[in-house]
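Subject: Protein record for review, amino acid sequence with backbone structure tokens
Why sent: The fold of this protein is of interest and is recorded here as tokens.
Notation: Tokens come from a learned vocabulary of local backbone shapes, not from coordinates.
Attached in line: The record itself begins immediately under this heading.
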Amino acid sequence: MDDRKRTPGPSRARNSKEPGWAEGLRQLYDSVVHEPLPDSFDDLLKKLDRAEHEND
């Protein structure tokens, strides 16, 4: 996963060789990456971790 900070705004796309839609797609990806983990996923990960430690 790439956690580098990106320059916001459309000027980045104009100043580089990226297509104009690239910045919007990047912003969408970043917003999804920063969403909190759903409780059901968190519970599942905890169960998997407990099971792994019990088998050690």
Observations:
- Residues 25 and 53 are 39 Å apart (CA to CA).
- The chain has one domain: 11-54.
